[in-house]
Amino acid sequence: MKLWSGMLSGALNDKAEEFNASIKIDRRLVFDDIDGSIGHVEMLGSAGILAEEESAEIIRGLRQIKAKLIDGELTVDEEAEDVHSFVENELIQEIGDLGKKMHTARSRNDQVATDLKMYLRRESGEIEELLKDYIEALLTLAEDNLDTIMPGYTHLQAAQPVTFAHHLTAYAMMALRDLSRLGDYKKRINELPLGACALAGTTYPIDREQVKDLLGFDAVMENSMDAVSDRDYVLELQSVLSLIAVHLSRFSEELIIWSSQPYGFVGIDDMFSTGSSIMPQKKNPDMAELIRSKAARLIGNMTQSFVMVKGLPLAYSKDLQEDKASVFDSVDTVKICLEVMTGQIETLKVHAEKMLKACKEGYLNATDIADYLVNKGVAFRDAHHIAAKLVKTAMDAGKTLEALSLETYKKESDKFEDDIYRAIDLKTIVAKRTSRGGPAKEEVQRQIAYVKDAISDD
After folding, report:
1. What is the model's pLDDT at position 4?
2. Average pLDDT for 180-208
């Protein structure tokens, strides 16, 4: 029997029944629905709305249903309209008509909002832990590559030398912001909707503060209409997860580029690669490519959520049933992307010699020629022009800047001395970049320590 069937006559059209049902999506809320109901019923008993023995018996029945689900003795019935109907119908079968009293002073409107908040609160905690694992993998690889010099790029053109550790730590900083955003999100999600009922509260003497404490919320929502119509916590999580996915996508793009034959900077382990059905020599970075594409999926989910809510009047509308499929998909997708990316990082092979070769062949020490001249009293714009001419000379001769003779340097400026070769040595260049945030070894170590401290404080 439908929970709402008292006034309506006749059955729903078969297609309307299928269209209206949400059980295949919201079934994953079953334990949150049971736990939320236990907190609600305990309050009903404490407030005298139910007799204490009635409250105790209903709670016993709910716990029995939960135990059966955990043991596999019971499965969620997908013929039910939604997860709330399933739990209530099972409770009535378990303890009889007393189960019909469970829903006193409650609506499915505040019930589903509570269930969803509890679920997303828990899932965001799991995503936090996966983010920490990802960050730790980045930092471990960075610590192993503090002296690995590689090209830094702008416009995807080789620009200046950095270290692989410096590059990896940049992604750790992005993930640290993601972690911070999740922490902020968990503060805002943790307000209890239950007790708002359909939209106008209730005449029963409920104690929302007690339910708040029983269910681990920090506060109760202050307006009953807001409580049942609010989906900010879905929109905000979709935004945070989309940003996590974008950061993973950017790193995936670099892994794809770096592992290609023209670069050869890294090798993705066979466990995270596939082959070709026709070309035997191929090793494809499919996992990185999939992570890159999943970011688009999450952005699509986020867009769906925002568009769904943007035109809704207060308070509850059936449209809000559509809040779950996309956010559940986003949660699942981010979790597996983080797990796969962490595995790729932990097994990544780094080809330091190819990175160093690319630095030399890319004339990444040209800026340091200009800096050298500035330190000798030459105006920067003139120094920049001289350095550019020397790069062209080296390119035309098929040489690196280190291989040009001192005579060649002196043709462009009499300020050049033998010390130019130390000034443009790639190791020297990186070591001198000691400004805060730079690639010098000691500075990258400080950045790594900063991230580690931030994770431990969290």
Report:
1. 45
2. 96
| Cα 367 from Cα 375, distance rounded (Å) | 13
| Residues 307/234, Cβ–Cβ less than 8 Å | no
Residue identified by tokens 């500035």 is 374
| pLDDT tier for residue 17 given thresholds of 50, 70 and 90 | confident
Percentage, residues of the chain above pLDDT 70? 97
Tell me phi and psi for residue 150, to 5 degrees: -140, 165
Tokens (6 digits) for 374: 């500035």
Which amino acid appears at position 423 of this protein? A
Burial 211-241 (b: 16+ CB within 10 A, else e): bbebbebeebbeebbbbbbbbebbbbbbbbb
How far is it, in rounded angstroms, from Cα 295 to Cα 215?
33
CB 120 within 8 A of CB 237: yes
Average pLDDT of span 358-363: 89
Q: How many CB atoms lie within 10 A of CB 303?
A: 13
How many CA atoms are closer than 13 Å to the CA of 228, on its beta-carbon side? 22
Predicted confidence (pLDDT) per residue in 78-111, tens digit:
999 999 999 999 999 999 999 999 999 999 999 9
What lies within 8 Å, CB to CB, of 104 at 6+ separation is: 44, 49, 50, 204
Active site residue 276: yes
Task: Please tell me the distance from the alpha carbon of residue 286 to that of residue 252, in angstroms, as a whole number.
Answer: 10
Q: Which residues contact 298 (CB under 8 A, 6 or more apart)?
A: 238, 241, 242, 245, 330, 333, 334
First to last CA, the chain: 48
Query: CA geometry: angle at 218 spanning 216 and 221, to 5°?
Result: 110
Is the four-CA dihedral 433, 434, 439, 442 of positive or negative sign?
Answer: positive
Q: Please pick, among 5, 260, 276, 293, the residue that the annotation labels catalytic.
A: 276
Dist. CA 208–CA 307, nearest whole Å:
32
Residue 211 has pLDDT above 50, yes or no: yes
* Position 257, amino acid: I
- Can you give the pLDDT at residue 15? 77
Tokens of 196: 């708002």
Q: Is the pLDDT of residue 10 over 70?
A: no
Query: Measuring CA to CA, which residue among 167, 202, 150 is closest to residue 362?
Result: 150
Read off the pLDDT band of 13 (50, 70, 90): confident
Our measurement of the distance from residue 13's CA atom to the centroid of its chain's CA atoms, rounded to an integer in Å, reads 41
Which residue in this structure is represented by tokens 């204490």?
A: 52
Interval 69-85: pLDDT, tens: 999 999 999 999 999 99
Q: Which of 9, 155, 277, 405 is catalytic?
A: 155
Tokens standing for 216?
Answer: 């681990």
> Partners of 153 in the beta sheet?
158
